[in-house]
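Show me a record, fold above all:
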Amino acid sequence: MSLFSTAPTGIFRRKPVDAIEPETEGGQLAPVLGLWQLVALGIGAIIIGAGIFALAGAVASTTAGPGVLFSFLIAGVVSLAAALAYAEFTALIPRAGTAYTYGYAVLGEIVGWFIGWDLLLEYTAIVAVVAIGVSGYVGNLLGQIGVHLPAWMLGAPGTGPGHAVDLVAMILCLLIAFLLTRGGSGPQPGWKPCWSGSRSRWFW
């Protein structure tokens, strides 16, 4: 059998959809996010997000000018395309795993392998960038209340005078890694599903 075939020994072998663990309430990935967790996710993604609020004004005033509006329009179109693509993933294969599961089931194992590692690198870069932005927020906030952190811990080398390491961003990344390693908990006593059915969501 060829190595580049969809046979069981080929790198393009596909995983049947029925063999993928369904996202049910009794499985390992039961949806257990509560009201406060969803609120925290919304605040973190929209209000504290580094980039759109921290960089748009500076880039528009010093580099791009009015052309920054076109970048927002392009980003909106790309985000819409990504949303439609993930909606298609969910409709075709209603299982957990996002693009990795779709690539494995439709295009083959080697494609799923590349997509999985690409997602891992993407999430790593995103966490690092957001942590740097939050570190800047923390430094500015402490400076406004009269607490001035040493210059060596305010940024990576080359980002400012006396900078040696972005300690706040490093601690934040380690904290997130610790929380992900610990994992989430299941529904706690007193939690109620917001609607009935096989895909209940839990709220306090």
